[in-house]
Amino acid sequence: MVDTMALLPPFMRGARIARGAGPHPSGPRPAGAEPGGHLAAGLPADDEVLLDAPDDRLGPALVAAGRQEWTAAARLLSGTRGAAEWENRDRYARRLAAFAHARTEWFESWRAAPGHQDDPDALLVAAQLAADRAWRSPARAELLAPVEALVTAAAEAVPRDPVPWRLALDRARGAHAGHTEFERLWTEAVRRSPHHYGCHVAALKYLGASWHGSHRECFDFAEPAADDAPPGSLVRALPVRAAFGYLTDGCGEAVPRVRLDAAADRAIELSGAFAPADPWPAEIRNVLAYVLLRLERRADALEQLRLIGPYATSFPWDRVAEDPLGLFLLARRELRAAPTGALWTASTLPSGGHGGRAHRGDH
After folding, report:
1. Core-most of 18, 47, 286, 308, by most CB within 10 Å?
2. Could you tell me the pTM of the whole model?
3. Does residue 70 form part of some domain?
4. Does 261 reside within a domain?
5. Is 285 inside a domain boundary?
6. Quick one: pLDDT at residue 39?
7. What is the pLDDT of residues 284-334, one digit of tens each?
8. How far is CA 55 from CA 46, 110, 277, 313, in A?
């Protein structure tokens, strides 16, 4: 196993750089500030639940792309670049790349349009798309090698953007880069955005027991990063991602229950800073709900499902089931029927690892 202890101090120093603005475009939203806040009183019907629903900015761009029109996507990413909305830029680039993987014509038209060959936003989507394609192959380590040139082009096009550096961190992990190289990339990433959530998740994955580190190293990295993150930053929920990794990868040493509960409690506190049925923290809330179920904290899990409202996310459910929406809805039905019973326990909930199948190819 690669020794990553030398990697941890720079990670932690990077997390302690002077705090910037939180990643939510307008900070944590007070309860009731969003339409749909009434969902906190109960759970929406199954047919009202949406899987990976886009927000009201991404949705029109995807609809336009479905009509083979790329200008809406270009405007969307250009706006995030101009406003330095790096968290939104990361999310939107991922979703647009996923759409381009399924339907490429609109993206090819964007790249071929006069004056857009070096479009920094198209370069970012192209790098994400190439990385996604490589990760889907068993030969990912070899296929990720040429992705480096695309990532470098995206990084040079917008030197202050941390998102290409998140891509570089993901690529390095898949290509089995050593800790010295990974540390170099991490330093570049946090220099641009000290609390960028995507970069922190990429680092956490590198430190995972099924890759280059251990569960202890994941928690040792995630906890101080969460402590140092500004209010409303999704990095405050990083320990619950470490807990999820431990509960699903099926390898490595045991983590004390008290540390898992503390990670869940941190994420509960962050979740409470946002309005019910807010799509921004939806993935964090979905991860938290799964972890709480595995910890048999059923009442807490039910509360998170209420806060999620209709916004189910593929991750984390797709790491432990072939039908992520089906598993999400099953969790809701069982908890609604018996919130304090024992229909689901740590031994019966699909786990993906400690008791189930691991997803080492996750990126």
Report:
1. 308
2. 0.85
3. yes
4. no
5. no
6. 40
7. 999 999 999 999 999 999 999 999 999 999 999 999 999 999 999 999 998
8. 20, 22, 12, 13
**Backbone phi, then psi, for 348, in 5-degree steps?**
-105, -25
Q: Is the pLDDT of residue 3 over 60?
A: no
Domain count, the chain: 1
C-alpha to C-alpha distance for 216 and 206, rounded to whole angstroms: 13
How far apart are alpha carbons 12 and 204 in whole angstroms? 12
Q: Is residue 44 one of the residues assigned to a domain? A: no
Range(s) of the domain holding residue 120? 54-188
